[in-house]
Amino acid sequence: MPTHPAVFITGGSRGLGFETARACLNQGFSVALYAREPGRLEQARSELLEDLPRADIKLFKGNVADYESLKTAIHQFSDTHGGLDAVVHAAGQIRAIGPLEQVDIRQWQTDVETSLIGAGHLIQAALPWLQKRPDGASVVLFVGSGHHQGLGFASGYCAAQAGLVRLVENLALERNWPRAAGQNPHGFVGYYALFSAVTPTGIMNHILADAEGRKWLPRFTEMFGEGKEVEPHLPAKMAAWLCQRKPVELSGRVVSGMLDPDLVEMRLEILGQPETGQLRLKF
Fold first, then answer.
1. Rounded distance, CA 162 to CA 143, Å?
2. Is residue 190 a contact partner of residue 251, using CB atoms and an 8 Å limit?
3. 230, 233, 249, 254: least surrounded by Cβ within 10 Å?
């Protein structure tokens, strides 16, 4: 039976999912990649094995909107590895670009379904396995800029991103674990919304290459022009850290993918010192 910690990543064949897989493999994880395109999945595994030839990588074809397919994949992977330590939701989509009355409502629904409903499917299917981990487990959901700022003409995408943040907050409240620093309690599952900033991956590349995207989303192009984009390996590094560290203190919070995990560790150490009194740190 494999002894490496195991992480299941949706949208794992490209973009933030792929970079998170690389970061997790470097941390010693066994990794499952879940995505819709089998050819792209095989290519992703080949690219990862070039740098890490002994990496344990499993591939699963499926759509996050299909709960039964996702549940079956998680069960197979978790059963093979004797458990599951973390899941990462990196599957996202933005295709309904423009005023709501002008877009194809089916694309609008798919944007919401992929990002938000897909996250719900992932968590519900994975929780029976995650809750069995004696040293805790992690749920990491990537959220884009739409969760906190007005991106006109991307209503489906923005609604889904804001929904992901609320989902993380509510799931953390459901468990109601202590906030104090220290060892994770038995059965603890940490829920983290990881803000990836403006990251040049599949979603952003589609927006910048699509005529409707360039027409209706000038805010994105402005942010690129101002140099506010972040390379995907940075939020991926934070995602891998959250999977490994499972910080109780940050469960239910939005964590910035632009922070260095070492800096966050230092802040958590300060937060856990009694003499700091009511010191409050923002992440």
1. 8
2. yes
3. 233
β-strands 189-195, 86-89: how paired? unpaired
Q: Residues 110-120: pLDDT tens digits?
A: 999 999 999 99
Residue 283 lies in a domain: no
pLDDT at 84: 97
Residue 120 lies in a domain: yes
- 163 is a domain residue: yes
Give the CATH number of the domain where residue 187 resides: 3.40.50.720
Q: What is the pTM of this model?
A: 0.88
Domain, as residue range, for 112: 6-276
**Which residues are within 8 A (CB) of 242 and not within 5 positions of it... i.e. 6 or more apart?**
86, 138, 140, 190, 192, 194, 250, 255
Bridge partners, 189 (sequence order)? 137
Per this entry, what is the length of the chain? 283
3-state secondary structure the chain: CCCCCEEEEECCCCHHHHHHHHHHHHCCCEEEEEECCHHHHHHHHHHHHHHCCCCCEEEEECCCCCHHHHHHHHHHHHHHHCCCCEEEECCCCCCCCCCHHHCCHHHHHHHHHHHHHHHHHHHHHHHHHHCCCCCCEEEEEEECHHHCCCCCCCHHHHHHHHHHHHHHHHHHHHHCCCCCCCCCCCCCEEEEEEECCECCCHHHHHHHHCHHHHHHCHHHHHHHHCCCECCCHHHHHHHHHHHHHCCHHHCCEEEECCCCHHHHHHHHHHHCCHHHCCCCCCC
Per the structure, the count of domains in the chain is: 1
Whether the Cβ atoms of residue 35 and residue 10 lie closer than 8 Å to each other: yes
pLDDT in tens, 23-82: 999 999 999 999 999 999 999 999 999 999 999 999 999 999 999 999 999 999 999 999
Residue 281 domain-assigned (yes or no)? no
